[in-house]
Design goal:
The chain has a seven-stranded parallel sheet, with helices on both faces. It contains nine helices and seven strands; from the N terminus they run βαβαβαβααβαβαααβ. It has one domain: NAD(P)-binding Rossmann-like Domain (Rossmann fold, 3-Layer(aba) Sandwich).
């Protein structure tokens, strides 16, 4: 079997929300594997710090972007177009969440979460289609990888109504885009992470007792590692994943199956 089966060396990639958490784990994995990566985020200072850190390992640059609006998606695609003449891998990871009791759950939570988590995924994918088409071939399709969540597979315990609904929508949007773009040799798949270290999960993992409760709900008995999420991304982005499209892969230690 060729050593190139899982290679992404020399590929171009964009990882949104790439300055921290799962996005940073994915970006680091791609950079370490030899891809040239652009990371984006709303907040410039942590974004530039993460890009500088990753640039010590390989090729990584930063582009500030707010993907809750179509203008932000178009601007990010334009900035990527200035750097690359094609885009092999688009990882739609940028996301927002909102937790509040049901009786006071506000309309603005739905606007913020759905604008970023669903509309932003669609708008950036469309804005980058010319770059993805330029990279696509029958032998090596261009890849869109959307980051969903196990909360979009099973109802969560937390009162994060807009978030769970948005991630279920991301999974269905993934299938719809996959059906539409398959004829253009662009695959679209989703990863549904379980518990990983991130700003969104910090409150659940901040104490040893709380962490133990979460780990106890995962059949494999642990929180996800950077290698877990990066490995699945690299699989989907490499020749090994070229025949998959329209899939939603839980990377959760069995959490969603229990």
């Amino acid at each position: 079997m060729s050593n190139e089966l899982f290679s992404v060396a020399g590929k171009t990639a964009v990882v949104t929300g790439g300055s921290r958490g799962v996005g940073l784990m994915i970006a680091r994995g791609l950079v370490e594997a030899g891809a040239e990566v652009v990371i984006s985020s709303r907040k410039l200072e942590p974004l530039e710090a993460s890009a500088a850190e990753l640039a010590q390992i390989g090729k990584c640059t930063a582009v500030q972007a707010d993907l809750s609006s179509q203008e932000g998606a178009v601007a990010l695609a334009a900035a990527v177009r200035d750097r690359f003449d094609k885009l092999d891998i688009l990882v739609n990871n940028a996301g927002a969440s909102w937790g509040e009791p049901i009786d006071s759950y506000p309309d603005k939570a739905w606007d913020r979460v759905l604008d970023t988590n669903v509309r932003g995924v669609f708008q950036l994918t469309v804005a980058a289609l010319d770059l993805l088409r330029a990279a696509a071939s029958e032998e090596d399709p261009a890849r869109v990888i959307n980051i969903g969540s196990v909360d979009g597979l099973n109802p969560p315990m937390m009162e994060s109504y807009a978030y769970s609904a948005s991630k279920a929508a991301v999974h269905q949007l993934t299938r719809h885009l996959a059906k539409r773009l398959a004829s253009e040799q662009i695959t679209v798949n989703a990863i549904a992470p379980g518990p990983f270290e991130s700003k969104m999960t910090a409150f659940m993992l901040e104490s040893p007792d709380a962490r133990a409760v979460i780990e106890g709900q995962v059949p494999l008995g642990r929180i996800g590692t950077p290698e877990d999420i990066a490995g699945t991304t690299i699989f989907l982005a490499s020749r090994a994943g070229a025949y998959l499209t329209g899939t939603v892969i839980p990377v959760d230690g069995g959490f969603s199956g229990t």
